[in-house]
Amino acid sequence: MVYVRSRKFCCCLPVRFGVFCEALIGIAVGGLFAVGGWLQIHSMLKGTLVLSHTQEISLWCLAVSMTIFTLSSLLGFIGAIGRKHSLVSLYGGTITFTTVLSIATGIFFIWNLFHAGGEEQVKKCEQNAQNAQDPSDPNFQQSTTVDNWVCQTGFATGRTVVVVVYVIFWLIQIYGCVIAFNYVSQLEEEEQAQFDHEKPAPQVTIVQPAYAFSERPNYGSGRA
């Protein structure tokens, strides 16, 4: 085996270890979301779960994409263990696709979150708070005003937290793609180095000059 300098991430960790860990996490997390998505689809098809048309499409997309992500993570896990260039390359391409899809759907969700007033969520929050109070209480009206302020502030804070979580998750996904493709490049270097090492050395043929009468000329005969 020809030695090729290992590429690193986080200053000191080899990229092979990074692909191994992120593929393992992808199997666990992606598998969890995939199983949950298919269970929800099963309930929807049985009629026990009622969703809007948009929610049904989102659920199908989630289940299918997470299933593909889980299978590709499994291939990446096998590729990282066995140093398989094709499997790791396929894994890198798949997580890049899921990252782009995640960013696109996340931006759409955040846009809707900030452009929608959130009145429905705030009203539900107020209703739940009012149900826990006694309408005959003299301070009921004042409590209602406080509940409205709390629900409005909570909704605004929740939107900010969602954005922060999305951005952190996207940065982790993008860095995971960089790690995967760095390992793909390292495997390509290893394969090229192994090919160059096993390639036979070129044959060199030494041709002796031909002399007349099969005798070598006497170069020293003309010297004094």
From TrEMBL:
Keywords, ordered alphabetically: Membrane, Transmembrane, Transmembrane helix
TM helices/strands, residue ranges: 12-37, 57-78, 90-114, 163-184
Entry protein name: Uncharacterized protein
